[in-house]
Amino acid sequence: METVGDMKKKPLGYFQDEDVRAFFLPNGMSLNMVNGFLKKQQKFDFGIVPGQIEFCFFKQAHMEFSFLDDDSDFSATTMQSHLVVNKNKRGEVIYFTDCPYQEITIRLPLPVFEQMFCFSSKARAENQLMGLLKSENFFCHNSTMTPQMYGAFNALFLCPFDRDEHILYAQAKCMELIALKLMEIEKPLRTPFRNANTREEVIAGKTASILLENMAHPPSLQELADRVGVSPSRLKQIFPKIYGTSPFGFLRHHRLEYARDLIAHSGFSASEAALHVGYSELSPFHRAFVKEFGISPGQCRANPV
Question: Where in the sequence is the domain holding 158, given as residue range(s)?
C-alpha cells in the first residue's frame, strides 16, 4: 500500500544517465521527477487519467502530443508549464532524441484540489477554473515557465529526500508550483483548450532556455537573436516584458541561484561553483554573489537555507 513519504526509483529504460523518482505526499498528492538524456526517439500511447489534475513543468524537453479523435495537438518543450485534466482523450506522445529531459509532474485528485485552492463555498461556486475542470472532458493550459517556477523546480531537484522533514519541504514546493501556475491562468478563461503563449512569450521562452542550457558558455546577444529569429534590438525589447530583466540580467540571476544551491546543498566550494556556472575568476563571482544575496559564498555554505 502506498503511504506518505514512500519513494519509488523505477528506471524507465530509455534515458541515458537516468534519474527517475516518485513520491507520495499528503492529501493524495504525488510527485514524479525525471532527469536524463534521451537515447532514441520514443513513441507511447497515453490515455485517460480520471478524477486527477496534473501540473507538469518542463525545464528541458521536446515532446509532441497528438489525439486520436481530433486535431487539438500540442507540444511540451523546454521552459514550459502545463495544467492538464484528461477525462476522455487518448492518443500518443513522441519523445524526440538528442535532447536533455528534465520534468516534474504533480498529480492530485480533483476534489482535493478544489478543497485546497478554493477556500470557501462562495469561492468554489465562483471559480471559473473549477467549472471548466468539472464540465470539460479535456482541459489543457500551456505557458512559459516563469523565473519563480524555475527556482521552485530547481529546489525540488536539489532536495536530498533523506529525512522526514524533506517530505514536508517537497509538499511546500509542489504547492508553490501549483499556486504559481494558477496565478498565470487568465480570467475569464475563454476556451477549454488554451495555449497561453503569445509570439513574444515564445521568443522570450526560447531565449531563456538557450541561456539556461548554455549557462557556463552563453551565446552573444547577436547569436541569441539569430537563433530565435529576431533582431538584437527587438530581443532587448521583448525579453524584459516577459521576464522583467534583460537576457543577461536573467542569466546572471540564474547563474547565481544555481551556484548558491551548489554551495549550500551539493558540497561545492565557491571556486568550484563559480567555474561551474561560467565565472572564470572568483572575485567577480564573490562580488556578484554578495550583491545578489547579501551574504558571502562562505556564509552560505556555513548556514545553508
Answer: 7-196
Sheet holding 80-86, edge to edge: 7-8, 15-24, 30-38, 100-109, 52-60, 80-86, 138-144, 193-195
Give the count of alpha carbons within 13 A of 163, CB side only. 4
Looking at the structure, do residues 91 and 215 belong to the same domain, yes or no? no
Along the 305 residues of the chain, how does pLDDT read in single tens digits? 344 445 455 555 555 556 788 888 888 899 999 887 766 677 777 666 778 899 999 887 777 777 766 655 666 777 788 888 887 777 777 776 666 678 999 999 888 888 877 656 555 555 667 776 776 777 788 777 877 788 889 888 878 777 778 888 888 999 999 998 888 775 433 333 344 456 787 788 788 878 877 888 999 999 999 999 999 999 999 998 877 889 999 899 888 988 887 887 677 899 999 998 899 999 999 999 999 999 999 998 877 65
CATH number at residue 43: 2.60.120.10
Specify the pTM. 0.64
